[in-house]
Every structure is written in structure tokens, then in C-alpha cells.
Write a structure and sequence with these properties.
This protein is α+β, with helices and mostly antiparallel strands. It contains 18 helices and 17 strands. The protein folds into 3 domains: 278 residues, no CATH class; 141 residues, no CATH class; 60 residues. The strands form 4 sheets. Strands 1, 2, 6, 7, 8, 11, 12, 13, 14 and 15 form a 10-stranded mixed beta sheet that branches. The chain binds adenosine-5'-triphosphate (ATP) and magnesium ion (2 copies). Its EC number is 6.3.5.-.
């Protein structure tokens, strides 16, 4: 009887596992170890330039004697890396250790020329801290979940090895080592095993990436190896398995899902292979594969590095770091969604989180431009109850940025040399007051940007929208005669020759088609008429009110 029940349960579990949903009988637990390359000017313990990304094109050009571990060279700590670590630790609500220390972690590998890595084992840089994930901002299933951070430690990166499988020497694999990455500063962040769902892992990585970018301490890219995530996975009583070499978010998530399935099978004595053991596994794109078992685990023989004194921070450093930090991304999104901005979650996120990567602008510059434009627009229209601040975000995100991309104009140049927020706000006020129509304003904006670009973005003095509107004859006509307007609108309906559409508008079935008629009217008047006037006339003709 019992056996029968167990079989049914295990079949259910297997079906759940293979469809990638987690079964309630088997709980997934994950903890992360994230290595982040800091973008300091110099390396961690030498004065070499910290440009590990140059590796592929120019190997070994940023490698000093220390980075290749010539005997007799000694480490000197780069305090910029300490400052970056302090920014991160404080942002994550961690407790910074006023006296942290460096230790040697010994192991033998070609990309580790010293024979040990300098890291922080006994006295890490900071302990504790957390990242909060929420359903609203991060798309997880629970309302809120808190992922606790165990510690942050500063350490050196290793050199980069690449393997030539078609070796010059018959029958042997050849390894190339590039020391540009050797001794690049890293922070290792270790989390508590607080993840029970892949969505939490995905959200955490995204939030962490955004944080390091916001703090300007790392480029935060997984693809280039700036951030490397190792995932420890266990299911129920299965010992933790560490997954390494996961190059991007989808590998991370797929490897966890596969590993969940594999451990469930192991617990059930199934066929996916492996034993119930502590292991380090890799990811081949389809499955996790054994890299090291516990038996081959190295004894690192940690010891305090005698060449490096303790890092002693004065309390002022932390006070000043705290002062220098800007608002958290969540608080920023919250603020943009509240009065007076009232942005949608989507727009607030675009202004807060770096997603759209290009050389022309970043989300911080766009947010600053938005906030300044907003303030000036509101000031210029302070006595107008009908001002519509929504037009600001849509004009900036859609019209302005779209054009900057099309014409390849950096926002910074635009701001400094032609269209600072105060002038852009003026244009928006002219649109709001219907002195220029939306469509004419779009044309005008594109035109001035095109000219700006053609002149190599050199400074434009005294840009005056009112004068330009006059010059190009774009002013909305205020003296349109009613009879002429009525005739024109009737002509449009006749020329359209679509009685079904007209009936649908009249019956209320397709109210939006009225906008289409208004659009045709706008075209007829070359954008020089108030939308409202056209709309009212069509309504009158079609007896809509
Ligand atoms: N039962 C568990 N299931 C899943 N993950 C776990 C479990 N217990 C601990 N972990 C995670 O394992 C990780 C341990 O990392 P830590 O750096 O402390 O040690 P390590 O992996 O042994 O060292 P190394 O840095 O040499 O890889 C943490 O992310 C922690 O959350
Ligand atoms: Mg670790
Ligand atoms: Mg580990």
C-alpha cells in the first residue's frame, strides 16, 4: 500500500520536474556566490591598468611583474577598490568590518601564478545585509522576499586561460594564459541559502546588476564576465551542489531547473545519474556535468597574508560613503510613480534601471533631463489647472530619445549645446497651449535635431521656438471659419467613402475611428488647426453629442 502511494507520488514529482515546475514535495534551495569585477583605474595590488576586456585583442599588455608573480614583487592595496566595496556594502545594508584582512587561498593552477589567491577568508570586508525582492517591482510570485547576504569579500581575479584543442604539439592540448585579468579587483558576494524559486534568483541578479551599475563600480555585464554567478543548489536533504561556469542568465536558470530535476531523481533512485554527494558541476547547455567531487576537494590552507597589513577604516569613511549614495532604485521608482509625477511602473522603471545600452544616453541622464523639464514645465504652467504633465514623459521617452537614436546625437551634447530642459519645457508648453499641433511639433523637433547633427552638434545660440514656428508657418490657426471647416470635414467624409466606418462611429461601436477622421483633418490643415476644433466639428456633423 505504502509502496503504491510512493510510486504515484514519484510519478507526479517526475512529471512536475520535467515540465520545469517545482513539486511541493521537493523543496529547491539555492544560495549564490557572485563575483563582480570592479572598474577601478588600476588593479587590486599593482599599478597596472585595469582593462581586462582588452584581453582578447591584446593579451598580456596590462600585466606587471606582480600580476605575473615574479618572485620578490609585493602587493600594495588599491584604496579605490576598498571605497567601491564600501559603497556596495553600505548600499546592501551590510555591516562593514572596520578591520578586515587579506588571506592566502592556496591552490595550483596555470592562471594562478602566485600559487595562491589573495582573498578575505577570516575577516571579510563586510557581513550581513540583504536585498528585498517584491512582486510589484521584481515580478516574483510572493509579495515580498528578503534575500540575506552572508558577506562581501575583496579578492583578486585570476588570469584567463583559453585552450587550443587542435594543438601544435601532437596529441596535447595547449593552454594560453592572458594575464590582463590577473589581479583585477573582485568582490565576492555570498548570499544565505534563501532562494526557493528560480524567479527569485533571476530577480536578484537583475537587481544586483542594476545596483553595481548605479554605483558605477562595475559594468555589471554577465556576458563579458564582469559578473560571474555560481549557484549552490540543494533539494530537500540532498547535499548542496555548486554550479559554476554559467555564462548568462538563461544558463543560470536552466542549470538550476535541470539540477533540481537531477537531484529529485537521485533522491528517488532514478536514472538521471549522479550520487547523493557534495559536488561542483558545470553546464554544457543541456545538462549539468560533474567537474569535481568532494573527494577531490582541495585543502586551501588559508593563512593571513603576511605582506598585507589589515585594512583599517576610519568611521568617517563610512559616514561619507553613506552621504554620497543616491536613492535606491526601488525608492526612485516609488517616487516617480507618486505625486506629482504619477508615472506608470513601466516608465518609472525605464527612467531608473539601465536596460537600453547605447553610447548616447543612460537612464540617469534621461531621468535628470526629465525631472528638470518637469519642474520647469510645471512652473511655466503654474496657473493652468488643465496642464497635462503626462506629455513630458511621453515626449522625452518616445519622441526625443527616438530621434537622438536615429540621428546618433548624445543627450549630453543636446543638453549642453542646443536643447536644455528649460527650452524643451517651452516647446511642451506651446504644444499644451495648442499654439503648435502635436504633429507639427514632431516635425519641427526632428528638423532642428537634424540640423544640429549636420552641424556636428556645435553650440546653437538663442533657440527660439516661437520664432521657429512663425518662420516655418506652423502656427495653429485660430481664425478658421466655421463654414469652411464644416465644408472641409464633410468633404473628408465623402472622399473617405466608407459608410460602414461612419455607421460604426455613430453607433459607438468603433469610437476610435473618430480619431482617424481627425487625423485626416489634421493632414488637410497641415497640422495648423486645434485638434479639439476638428473633433467637435466631426461630432457635430455625425450628431454624436
Ligand atoms: N543547503 C544548501 N543548499 C543550497 N545552497 C546552500 C546550502 N547551504 C549553503 N548554501 C550556499 O552555499 C554557498 C557557500 O558559499 P561559500 O563561499 O561560503 O563557501 P564555498 O562555496 O565552500 O567556498 P568557495 O568560495 O571556495 O567556493 C552560499 O551561497 C550558501 O548560501
Ligand atoms: Mg565562495
Ligand atoms: Mg563556492
Amino acid at each position: 500500500m505504502l509502496r503504491g502511494n510512493y510510486r504515484i507520488l514519484s510519478r507526479v514529482a517526475r512529471r512536475h520536474a520535467s515540465s520545469n515546475t517545482l513539486s511541493s514535495k521537493y523543496e529547491l534551495t539555492c544560495g549564490l556566490e557572485i563575483h563582480t569585477q570592479l572598474n577601478t583605474k588600476n588593479k587590486l595590488f599593482s599599478m597596472s591598468s585595469n582593462k581586462s576586456f582588452e584581453s582578447l585583442a591584446h593579451p598580456n599588455i596590462n600585466a606587471s611583474y606582480f600580476d605575473v608573480a615574479l618572485p620578490g614583487t609585493q602587493p600594495v592595496l588599491n584604496y579605490e577598490a576598498v571605497l567601491f566595496a564600501a559603497k556596495l556594502a553600505v548600499s546592501l545594508h551590510g555591516t562593514v568590518n572596520i578591520n578586515s584582512q587579506f588571506d592566502r587561498k592556496h591552490y595550483f593552477y596555470g592562471d594562478q601564478p602566485q600559487g595562491y589567491q589573495i582573498t578575505q577568508h577570516y575577516h571579510p570586508f563586510s557581513k550581513g545585509g540583504y536585498i528585498m525582492l517584491s512582486k510589484e517591482f521584481d515580478g516574483i510570485d510572493q509579495d515580498l522576499s528578503k534575500i540575506n547576504i552572508t558577506q562581501l569579500q575583496i579578492e583578486q581575479d585570476t588570469a584567463r586561460s583559453s585552450y587550443l584543442h587542435q594543438s601544435l604539439i601532437e596529441g596535447r592540448e595547449e593552454a594560453l594564459i592572458d594575464f590582463n585579468r590577473s589581479n583585477v579587483p573582485l568582490i565576492e558576494l555570498v548570499t544565505e541559502p534563501d532562494f526557493h524559486d528560480v524567479k527569485q534568483v533571476k530577480a536578484f541578479i537583475k537587481k544586483y546588476q542594476n545596483l553595481v551599475r548605479q554605483l558605477h563600480i562595475s559594468t555589471g555585464d554577465l556576458e563579458t564576465g564582469s559578473i560571474r554567478v555560481d549557484v549552490n543548489v540543494s533539494v530537500n536533504e540532498h547535499p548542496r551542489v555548486e554550479l559554476k561556469n554559467l555564462p548568462n542568465t538563461s544558463s543560470i536558470l536552466n542549470a538550476i531547473k535541470y539540477e533540481y530535476k537531477r537531484q529529485v531523481e537521485v533522491l528517488e533512485g532514478g536514472s538521471l545519474g549522479g550520487s547523493k554527494a557534495v559536488e561542483t558541476r558545470g553546464w554544457d547547455g543541456e545538462k549539468t556535468t560533474l567537474l569535481r567531487s568532494k573527494e577531490s576537494a582541495v585543502d586551501y590552507r588559508y593563512m593571513a597574508d603576511p605582506e598585507l597589513p589589515p585594512v583599517t577604516l576610519s568611521p568617517d569613511v563610512l559616514v561619507n560613503v553613506k552621504k554620497s549614495l543616491t536613492q535606491s532604485a526601488d525608492d526612485c521608482i516609488r517616487e516617480l510613480m507618486a505625486e506629482p509625477y504619477n508615472l506608470t511602473l513601466k516608465d518609472a522603471k525605464i527612467l531608473t534601471i539601465q536596460n537600453d545600452f547605447n553610447d548616447l544616453y543612460n537612464n540617469e541622464e534621461v531621468r535628470q533631463y526629465y525631472l528638470e523639464t518637469f519642474n520647469i514645465y510645471m512652473l511655466l504652467l503654474k496657473d493652468d489647472n488643465k496642464k497635462k504633465p503626462k506629455i513630458i514623459v511621453s515626449w522625452i521617452l518616445h519622441e526625443l530619445l527616438g530621434n537622438l537614436k536615429k540621428l546618433e546625437i548624445p543627450l549630453k551634447k543636446l543638453n549642453e549645446n542646443m536643447l536644455p530642459p528649460e527650452l524643451f519645457a517651452e516647446l511642451l508648453v506651446l504644444i499644451h497651449k495648442q499654439i503648435i499641433s502635436n504633429s507639427s511639433a514632431k516635425m519641427l523637433l526632428f528638423h532642428i535635431l537634424e540640423e544640429f547633427k549636420a552641424n556636428d552638434c556645435v553650440k546653437v545660440e538663442n533657440l527660439d521656438f516661437k520664432a521657429l514656428i512663425k518662420k516655418y508657418d506652423l502656427e495653429v490657426q485660430t481664425d478658421v471659419s466655421k463654414t469652411e471647416l464644416e465644408q472641409n470635414c464633410r468633404d473628408i467624409i465623402t472622399e473617405l467613402n466608407n459608410p460602414k466606418m461612419i455607421d460604426d462611429i455613430k453607433s459607438g461601436k468603433k469610437k476610435n475611428s473618430l480619431k482617424y477622421l481627425v487625423g485626416l483633418g489634421m493632414r488637410k490643415y497641415q497640422g495648423k488647426i486645434k485638434v479639439q476644433e476638428l473633433e467637435n466639428m466631426f461630432k457635430q456633423i455625425l450628431e454624436l453629442e
